[in-house]
Amino acid sequence: MTPRDPARQGRTDPRLTRPQPGAAYPPDRRTVLRRAGLTGLGLAGAGLVGSGTWAAGDTVAAAGTAPSNAPLRIGYLPITDAAPLLVGHARGLFAQEGAPTAAPVLFRSWSSLCEAFVSAEVDAIHLLMPLAFHLRYGLGADARVTAWNHVNGSALTVAPEIREVAQLAGRTVAVPAWWSLHNVLLQRLLREAGLRPVIRRAPGPRETALVVMSPADMLPALHQRTISGFAVADPFNAAAAARGVGRTLRFLGDVWRQHACCVTVLRGDLVDGDPGRTEAFLRGLVRAQAWAREHRAQAAPLLADGLLPQPEPVILRALTDHADAAVAVRHPEWAGQLIDFAPYPYPGFTARLLEEMRETLVDAPRDFLDGLDAARVHEDLVVTGPVRAAMETLGGPSAFGLDGYERTEQLDG
């Protein structure tokens, strides 16, 4: 059976008026790109036509959440960030909790994943937290953050000869999306080193050019010296080190302690219209996170078995150990070199991230940030009740190495 392009499924009336923030939003994909500026997300050139891979036998509803008697549809990128969703499906945890899922759908870029979600072709995705801001407030998408999908798990990888951030002067570094923690934290590191990020032009002697690139393209680009580094999720950093193509210069979990890189996003019509299934799905997700953080070695072969394209040793390295951690870590007590799974979405993180996004250079529409109140946006964007209840069934925050449901954000660089 020929794989279908999910971006070409579920078209609706192309006559679209710009929605209000938070409104239900299953429009035509090309209208989304043209009117709402999805190309401005920094995803152009990274699969805007759509490049999802569908398993044989999968079916797609034209629009809206999967019917209550149909499995929920998960979309993901082939990175270890997706581990909770993939583990939850592979181990049958969602089904055990009463929210069965269809075979997860692999997408090759954030653009195609976003398009499928906005067009209501998938119900649950892991998504860059800044991109979740943009989907809801920039595009008016029906998106709700329901849990942190993982923390840490990303790094700044550079060409082997580069030993400090200052040596990125006059060079080009790639990020997976403008609205990403990778871009936010990379720019913090550049500023600390006295470098100015620039876009769409050659960098000067005290500048670093930033470009957006699909994660799958970063390793070849570094090998070919098209770029001098990239900030992205594992296992691409681990793969670069294992192949001798690059070296980890700084783990991003060592820049912002236990930061949420990707979050679990559900369609708002599912959260509001089917709370029972939402709660069941989050129980399965929380169980998957608890299992993954306690069974890292077992998770690697599970993920390598047709879910992630990278070889098992690379996935295992990303989950368990980085040989270069000793030279890339300033705060060993933060354990920022390893991906971890802590599902509770802290309000202080949401507020601080909004502040950081306002200080970050992007080649994308950003006026949606102007009207957002950092003290109130968390209540509107994030749904905390179901995930908190799910965590309590496993013993509460301590089951995930957390001290409680409040914390103070810690940043460096």
UniProtKB/TrEMBL annotation:
Cellular localization per UniProt: Cell inner membrane
Pfam families in the cross-refs: NMT1_2
Region (Disordered), start-end ranges: 1-28
Bias-annotated ranges (Basic and acidic residues): 1-16
Residues annotated as transmembrane: none
Family per similarity comment: Belongs to the CmpA/NrtA family.
Name of the protein in question: ABC transporter substrate-binding protein
Organism: Rothia kristinae
